[in-house]
Design a protein that fits this description.
The protein is an alpha/beta fold. Helix content is 49%, strand content 12%. The strands form 4 sheets. Strands 6-3-2-7-8-9 form a 6-stranded parallel β-sheet. A 4-stranded mixed β-sheet has the order 1-5-4-11, with helices on both faces. A 3-stranded mixed β-sheet has the order 10-12-13, covered by helices on one side. α10 packs antiparallel against α12 and α16 packs across α17. The protein is globular, with a radius of gyration of 24 Å. It starts with 7 loop residues before the first strand and ends with a helix. 48% of the residues are buried.
């Protein structure tokens, strides 16, 4: 690509001089707007050319087909509230689709020049059962484990990998056989304690295999799984975005991705060997990721959900519209200041009130594209990690979490309105999108004066402790009653 136009930033590295040292599984928009950018900037700052990325797609070859004709180059269109910029990224030096390229991916994971494997395959990509272990009934994972069993016995399996965990395990097995040295596997998905979760999943999967013991022993001594916390809003790329980028670049970019200006990456400094100098690109290397993760869940994610429920109830289509409502912004500030911040210990280098303000400013950016209904989905699964830990901590401290109770009340009112066919947003009637929809609909039906009590009795969401807490129940009852009459 010849990009010399004003407003376009060229790659920070010379792609022709970069060699692959990192394999990434899950070549979606988030990785291209986040870790790939950090990795390029780290390599440029350190003057290192060995951190090119082999990006591996998961479900289809579409991204490969987009990027191969562009030699792996693509643009990141950064959309702020008032400013737009475009940069080209050159760290992606090869792309592959397991359906046709499994052998090449396995060989690259096993190469002694490869030191890191990263993943963004979404929570569903890990094929976990309800107990958190591997879902051995999953047909894709099962097929991969059959191939792995053949390979660990010294045979050859030519079948393409069908799951991220299967692909990773087969790559680790080939690396162990090649005696190619230690490796670090970095999970970048939004899983609590993601490094430990991935390590346990890998170990448990191998424990279930009759011939998995030796590979497990090699992984225990040679592979590290640091935890991470990632953050950047990456909206879906639209035709309007492509047209805007084409006007800046003078070329069509089939691999364009879009991101907000804010980006954050916190990485546990627990590596088996060499790594990119990500800290030179602005990442935080730390011995403890959990405080950052806790702050993100309780400040950012809980605020997001609060705006989603309250905003949808007021008919707002987007989070940006919701946060522009002074009443809703005040509700979020009350949640954070009164209930969330007392439960947090500020991570190193993070000022929590400034973080709160930055979060609200990010939500006000209309270019992020987050809708209230999108963020409100799966509330029965999101309440516990985002909010109910705060509630429990406040109750344990002897305080009544009245501000957090407003968010719970907003969720209850949202469930009621959607299951009763009463919620209309942007001219469309909104159904409840939740894996517990049937149970929640049953609880929400009935007299309004006992709505809060029926919903709190859904113990799969609230647990026995919160369902039996008289103080919390009283606060939620009051918040629901207020919300049903005033919608704030």
């Amino acid at each position: 690509m010849d990009a010399t136009r004003s407003g376009v930033r060229l790659p920070a590295v010379d792609p022709s001089e970069v060699t692959v040292g990192l394999v990434h599984l899950g070549l979606g928009a988030f990785h291209r707007a986040h870790q790939a950018v950090f990795t390029e900037d780290a390599a440029a700052s350190a003057g290192e050319n060995g951190w090119g990325i082999l990006g591996v797609t998961q479900r289809s070859a579409r991204v490969v087909e987009q990027l191969v004709p562009q030699d792996g180059l693509y643009g990141v269109l950064t959309k702020g509230t008032d400013e737009t910029s475009l940069r080209l990224v050159g760290s992606l030096r090869d792309v592959a689709f397991p359906g046709t390229d499994t052998a090449r991916v396995l060989a690259t994971i096993a190469a002694p020049t490869t030191h890191v494997v990263t993943l963004t395959v979404t929570e569903k990509g890990y094929r976990r059962a309800a107990d958190g272990g591997p879902d051995l009934t999953d047909p894709d994972l099962s097929a991969d484990l059959d191939a792995l069993a053949t390979e660990v016995r010294g045979g050859r399996a030519d079948s393409p990998a069908r799951s991220p965990i299967g692909l990773l395990l087969r790559g680790l097995a080939q690396r162990a056989r090649a005696d190619a040295g230690p490796l670090t596997v970095v999970c970048c998905d939004n899983l609590a304690d993601n490094g430990s979760v991935l390590a346990a999943l890998v170990g448990t999967t191998l424990d279930a295999m009759p011939d998995g013991r030796r590979l497990r022993e090699w992984i225990d001594t040679s592979v590290r799984f640091p935890g991470t916390m990632v953050d950047r809003i990456v909206p879906a790329t639209t035709d309007a975005h492509r047209a805007e980028a084409a006007a800046l670049l003078g070329l069509t970019d089939a691999g364009l991705v879009v991101g907000e200006p804010f980006t954050q990456w916190v990485v546990e400094d627990h590596f088996a060997g060499p790594r990119p100098a990500w800290e030179l690109a602005g990442a935080t290397l730390t011995s403890a990721v959990a405080p950052y993760e806790r702050a993100k869940l309780r400040v950012l994610n809980a605020s997001h959900s609060t705006l989603a429920y309250l905003g949808a109830l007021r008919g707002y289509a987007t989070i940006a519209q919701a946060v522009a409502d002074p009443d809703l912004a005040a509700a979020v500030r009350a949640l954070v200041d009164e209930d969330v911040l007392p439960t947090l210990v500020a991570p190193d280098g993070m000022e929590l009130t400034r973080y709160r303000d930055d979060v609200l400013a990010r939500f006000a950016n209309p270019n992020t594209g987050h809708t209230t209904v999108q963020v409100a989905m799966d509330g029965s699964q999101k309440l516990s990690p985002r909010l109910l830990g705060t509630v429990r901590d406040r109750l344990a401290a002897g305080a009544v979490p009245t501000a957090a109770a407003v968010t719970v009340a907003a969720w209850i009112a949202y469930v009621r309105a959607t299951t009763q066919g009463e919620l209309v947003v942007d001219g469309h009637r909104v159904p409840l999108d939740d894996p517990m929809a049937a149970t929640l609909a049953d609880a929400a039906a009935g007299p309004l004066d006992s709505l809060a009590d029926r919903m709190l009795d859904v113990r799969a969401v609230f647990g026995d402790d919160l369902a039996d807490s008289a103080a919390f129940r009283s606060a939620v009852r009051a918040a629901v009653a207020n919300l049903l009459t005033s919608r704030v």
